[in-house]
Write a structure and sequence with these properties.
16 strands, 6 helices, 2 domains, hypothetical protein PF0899 fold, 22% helix
């Protein structure tokens, strides 16, 4: 069982640093919002929705008229949940003492400013565990499947990824024969997706509107706009350590980002201004932390623990395009 030592170290900031995998979606939502929102419940709201009547002049009043009959507003709430990420780092006495890999090659000691780290050290083991959590969170935030069981000790909580949240602005062209799709047709798909999201939201793209696709769709988006010239496919910039390109659509400029965790043959258009990671703090410890476990034998064990989920905002703020497999422009 876990020890009672509460001398924990927070690793929340490490989620958004560069690692072995790009984790571009995770880095962007952490960079744009500038941190992690906190929740006091495993289930948290991502949107509070209400409806208004259609705009018209039917309800203008005559001079001196009595106040009209009240029209009630119906409120609904969309929610998501946190999920628990837990890793253990074990440092055996022999492993900590050994200064060679495979018993043959000595490990360079490195320096405080050097790139070389001892893979048997606590720092390196914790770093790689954090890399693992970061990549798992990025995958969950992109395409996670929602699960909110009544008994979280028997079935794990799972946060809903942004791809699976989208219902309103979904364009499915996956049944089209790929050989019939030209640059212009694919570009038309992209424009149609932007138009649908604009229609659902009532406003044009800003600097946070971003397309995400795997390597194939990232290339296809660019290829479909290259023929229009450099005004329509603009040079790359950098944000949060991520290379970002921009395309000029009929409704405004939209970012393009490579995201390997996107499902194949799908393109996400996300308004990142309404997207944020959410953390549920453990009292006295924090959202994502490391703490020593109880001593057992000739090894020291460290637990890394975090409770995090995705606030994807109202699902109609985003859009999803599905295209046929094997498409290469």
């Amino acid at each position: 069982m876990a020890g009672t030592n509460t001398n924990v170290v927070s690793y929340l900031g490490e989620l958004f640093r560069s690692g072995r995998r790009p984790n571009n979606f995770l880095k962007l939502i952490g960079g744009i919002q500038g941190g992690v929102m906190e929740t006091s419940s495993r289930q948290f709201p991502v949107a509070v929705l209400y409806s208004l009547r259609a705009p018209s002049q039917s309800y203008v009043a005559e001079e001196g008229a009595n106040a009209p009959t009240a029209q009630p507003r119906t409120l609904t709430q969309a929610t998501n949940v946190i999920e628990i990420h837990q890793e253990t780092v074990q440092l055996t006495y022999l492993g900590s003492s050994e200064k060679a890999v495979g018993g043959i090659v000595p490990l360079p000691q490195g320096s405080a400013n050097g790139p070389v780290q001892n893979p048997r050290s606590e720092a390196w083991q914790v770093m790689t565990a954090m890399d693992t959590i970061s990549q798992d969170l990025n995958f969950a935030f992109v395409q996670g499947v929602y699960a909110n069981p009544g008994d979280a000790t028997a079935t794990a909580l799972q946060t809903r990824g942004i791809v699976n949240a989208i219902v309103t602005n979904l364009i499915d062209n996956s049944g089209v024969t790929s050989s019939t799709i030209t640059d212009a047709i694919y570009r038309g798909y992209i424009e149609a997706l932007v138009q649908q999201v604009v229609t659902s939201n009532g406003y044009n793209p800003d600097d946070t509107w971003t397309f995400f696709g795997d390597a194939a769709q990232y290339a296809n988006i660019q290829a479909s706009y290259e023929a229009l010239g450099t005004i329509y496919l603009q040079p790359e910039t950098e944000f949060a350590g991520i290379k970002i390109r921009r395309i000029l659509t009929r409704y405004g400029t939209v970012n393009i980002v490579l995201e390997p965790d996107m499902p194949a043959n799908q393109v996400l258009l996300a308004d990142l201004s309404v997207v944020s990671p959410v953390g549920m703090p453990v009292p006295g410890k924090g959202i994502l932390f490391a703490e020593p476990l109880a001593k057992t034998g000739s090894a020291d064990n460290i637990q890394i623990y975090g409770q995090l989920g995705l606030d994807h905002g109202p699902e109609f703020a985003h859009g999803l395009l599905k295209v046929p497999g094997g498409l290469s422009l």
